[in-house]
Amino acid sequence: MAMKIWATCALLAGALVTTGCEEALGDAGSEGRITAAALTNAGADSANWISHGRTYSEQRFSPLDQIDTANVDELGLAWFADMDTARGQEATPLVIDGRLYLTTAWSKVKAFDAATGELLWAYDPEVPGETAVKACCDVVNRGLATWGDALFLGTLDGRLVALDRDSGEVLWEKVTVDQSQSYTVTGAPRVIDGKVIIGNGGAEFGVRGYVAAYDAAGGEELWRFYTVPAGDEDADDPAYLQDAAETWNTDVLAGSDAIGGGGTVWDSMAYDPDLDLLYIGVGNGSPWNRAYRSPGEDGTGEGDNLYLSSIVAIRPDTGEYVWHYQTTPGETWDYTATQHIMLADMEIDGEMRQVLMQAPKNGFFYVIDRETGEFISAEPYVSVNWAEGIDPDTGRPIENPETRVDKTGKAALVTPGALGGHNWHPMAYHPGENLVFIPAFEAGMMYAPETDWKPDRARGFNVGFDLGAGDLPPDMGIRREVAGTLRGMLVAWDPVAQQPRWTVEHEGPWNGGVLATGGGLVFQGTAGSEFNAYDASSGEKLWSFAAQTGVVAPPVTYTVEGEQYVAVLAGWGGAYALSVDGDLMASKAPVRNVSRLLVFRLGGEDVLPAEMELASLPLDPPASRASAETIALGKAKYARYCAVCHAPGAVGSTVLPDLRRAGSLGNAQSWMAVVHDGLLKDNGMAAFSGSLSREEIEAIRAYVIHRANEDKAIEGERIARR
Ligand code: CA
After folding, report:
1. How many angstroms does the Cα of residue 336 sit away from the middle of ligand 1?
2. What gap in Å lies between CA 124 and CA 704, rounded to an integer?
3. What are the backbone angles phi and psi of residue 450, rounded to the nearest 5°?
4. What is the DSSP code (8-state) at residue 639?
5. What is the full DSSP assignment across 336-370?
6. Which pLDDT score is estimated for 2?
7. Dist. CA 80–CA 95, nearest whole Å
8. Ligand 1 centroid from CA 377, angstroms
9. pLDDT band for position 684 (50/70/90)?
10. Is the peptide bond before 287 cis (omega within 30 degrees of 0)?
11. Which position among 97, 237, 267, 334 bears the catalytic label?
12. What is the pLDDT of residues 620-677, one digit of tens each?
């Protein structure tokens, strides 16, 4: 019976709300097994949320309308659950027949009764703590996929794990990466017709990106699609990679000093079942600085470096290349195109078009034809200085040459910076309004070449830029001025007009992913510790909840026995939280991580425990006695090996330990035991003995002591003016 209902509803594919099927699908779902038809028709199954972006189109729109603009002020906490990891939480939960499944930091999985919050089971893949040193952007995980009776998880250390959905027991697991390299997996897998598709990250460290498909039944690898050429004539690259090789200096891609090339597929995917095309978003180059990857002696040669920063369409059955569109040819600013890919149909210039939309890091909102890859239009959704616009005939950017940096030349201040104008945080689409809601922000970056850069693929960032070049001086006036240039906003973007219809300003960057609903609502959490509901048509804030922590993950909505719920995983973290100046942002609130699942319904009356007071101890570093030369050496090594997690300039990130306050700062032996020998590796602080000499590690200590003393001198001013 259930199969028959599925078959009938499958005929209605494309309709957003198929009232007749909606309830029937609930019954069919209770049979448990997730089929190809269930995933293709997930849009009609409003009770559940069975795919990462809710449907293969990844619109993150739910037709549910029980909670609407008129009654959202009655929304209250139904239940909450504290998580056992205090790091960035970025996951989209899945909801299947009254059960909610989610992933947390450190790739853990939990299953809850979606109505009561009862914990049904928990799974910990026991990712080794020192894996954290391979992660550019916190030890996060963005979610699960489901097929049959199983859930699929990618772990930080690169495993694909199949779990029994009822019990949480491991069905099989498979290592999907070379674990001797700095690959990590943080993205949610997708499943297409029994194939589990998953990519990986690590382009900051020097890996070669790919996406691969595994048999859902047993984990056998079925195909692998590399995004950059092997650079080795014996590698037998397929035609699409031989074409790409023309756009690289392939000498740097092979051999013992190879740079990997990057192009990792670490997050975004979408699928069109009618066209049978899988769309993947490809990341930045490795290293970032193109001058180290392209033809020409001194790095002045050009080269698009395909398929970096591209959207690529491939056949999910075979991994065969179909088409690509490159958003940033010859990318050099970490302008990934791994951002959310969303599919929709809309009328443009009097014609119905099947489009694919993306707001990649480079600051332009793209609308392209998803059948052919043809460029339709693009306009900037944030301030942009690297390009004047996109040439409508060629689809290529009209670049500002001032923003290109080579191996030895001058630095450039570029907007967007490496965090982008929009990062991984999912957008949402409201079909009735024809609006895309973009969690956007503005944060420029100083790009200065790292001269004589050599790859070190064991540890540390491999970007070919001096990451200490943009460090702020110990001057509160300048720091506040820079803080004033940081913006965060929710932009309601009209993809046909290519302009915003409304914009909500937030306190700063790095706000949460978005959900849109049939109740005319847009839900979004903020870095400023709020979880908000806005009117989709106007942006008016209609409801707000004090979340006690920054919320970066996207919400979902579902029903259990006819009651609508909205759920979001709270917990500050991720790339911005690790690289932001903790002192500077202290007045802007997101200085703590409270990792917690929050679930709401109309009339919900649960309350959170009282908020803990944050104690801020004054800086008390040992005196700075090292030579200027030693401090300079420490600064250079800190920028390459430490800043990514402990914040530039050693100012203390908002998530990880503030090194200016480290107990070992005054004790050279303790410092060496941690940094050289890996005393705290199980906590995530790996040993750096393979990359840094004892002299260099001691120089880093001298640099941090120096910085702590500088900041102590301005501390009174900071506290007085907060
Ligand atoms: Ca990157």
Report:
1. 6
2. 35
3. -90, 110
4. H
5. -S-S-EEEEEEEETTEEEEEEEE--TTSEEEEEET
6. 34
7. 16
8. 25
9. confident
10. yes
11. 334
12. 999 999 999 999 999 999 999 998 888 888 887 777 888 998 989 999 999 999 999 9
Closest C-alpha to 200, from 183, 214, 215? 183
| Whether the model pTM is above 0.85 | yes
- Tokens 């990857």 correspond to 293
- Local structure of 154: helix, strand or coil: strand
Query: DSSP letters of 515-551?
Result: EEETTSEEEEE-TTSEEEEEETTT--EEEEEE-SS--
485 burial level (CB within 10 Å; 0-12, 13-18, 19+)? exposed
pLDDT tens track for 173-184: 999 999 999 999
Taking CA atoms, 666 is separated from 107, 350, 660, in Å, by 35, 70, 10
Residue 160 to residues 73, 107, 140, 177, Cα–Cα distance (Å): 41, 11, 15, 10
Q: What are the tokens at 702? A: 């001298």
Q: Could you report how far apart the first and last alpha carbons of the chain are, in Å?
A: 65
Cα–Cα–Cα angle for 83, 85, 90, rounded to 5 degrees: 80
- In the three-class reduction of DSSP (H, G, I as helix; E, B as strand; rest coil), residue 583 is classed as helix
Exposure string of 379-407, with b = 16+ CB inside 10 Å and e = fewer, is: bbbbebbbbeebeeeebebeeeeebbbbb
Q: What's the gap in Å between 53 CA and the centre of ligand 1? A: 22
Please tell me the predicted confidence (pLDDT) of residue 514: 98
Q: What is the pLDDT averaged over residues 584-612? A: 82
Average pLDDT over residues 534-550: 97
Q: What is the largest CA-CA distance in the chain?
A: 79
Q: Which residues surround ligand 1, an ion (CB under 5 A)?
A: 284, 334
Please tell me the distance between residue 339's alpha carbon and the centre of ligand 1 in angstroms: 11
Q: Are 611 and 90 in contact (CB under 8 A)?
A: no
Please state which of the ranges 24-28, 161-165, 367-371, 463-467 shows the lowest mean pLDDT.
24-28
In angstroms, rounded to a whole number, what is the distance separating the alpha carbons of residues 520 and 84?
34
User: Which residues on adjacent β-strands are paired with residue 353?
Assistant: 346
- As given in the structure block, the two tokens for residue 260 are 């990997």
Q: How far apart are CA 433 and CA 430, in angstroms?
A: 5
- Burial, 624: exposed, middle or buried (Cβ in 10 Å; 0-12, 13-18, 19+)? middle
Residue 421 alpha carbon to ligand 1 centre in Å: 13
Q: What is the pLDDT averaged over residues 19-36?
A: 54
**Residue 232 falls in the annotated catalytic set:** no
The rounded distance, in Å, linking the Cα atoms of 181 and 90 is 24
Query: Strands 514-517, 61-62: parallel, antiparallel or unpaired by DSSP?
Result: parallel
Q: How far is the CA of 105 from the centre of ligand 1 (A)?
A: 19
CA neighbor of 642 nearest in space, from 441, 481, 467: 467
CA of 222 to the centre of ligand 1 (A): 27
